[in-house]
Each structure stands twice: as C-alpha cells, then as structure tokens.
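Input.
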Amino acid sequence: MPGTRPLPLPMRRGEVWQYSGLLGRRGQSDKRLVVSADLLNESEDVATCYALHVVGSDPQSLLAVETPWGWASVLLLDRPPRSMLTERLGEATPEQMDAIDNALRAVLEL
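Output.
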C-alpha cells in the first residue's frame, strides 16, 4: 500500500548483523552486534536499535569482546536504522554477552 513502510527484519539481542549504510565510510565496520532489549527490537514502532560496531582487529581494550566476526567494541555504541541491518550473520555466545554486559555497565556506570 502506498505510504506504508516495510517492516524491519526481526532481530534479537546478541545477534550479529551485516550493516549496509548509505555511505560506505572507509575504515568503518560493516557489522553490528545488537545490544538493545528484545522488547525494543520487536517493536514495529521503533525504526532503530542499539548495536556495537564489530571491528576486524583487536582494539587492545578491556571494553571490546572477541567474537567469531571480530571484536565488539562497547566504545563504538551505535543506533543504526534497522533497515540498514540486512543479513543476520550469527549470534554471540552467552559468555560473550556476559562480557559485553559487564563492559556496558562499566562504561555507562549502570
């Protein structure tokens, strides 16, 4: 129908997604690890999510967690439009998510 927007792909906390931004920025990661709550992720009224950049090389920081797709850096918290997350690549392990949760608590003093 005209005027309706396509629904964003369903996603869950802990999933790693391919990011296809409008502008390919040199040196910027093309993967994101979703850290927002599933209640937010499941909402059709919310067009964005919270996600960490997943970078290809070890940033040598206690605030980055290694995953099979690279290093998820808590210092690179992003709010990408869900429509830019185009392909589910996999899911972080519970141990990796515990480490990410600890790093988020440290950075945000939660």
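The chain has one domain: 15-108.
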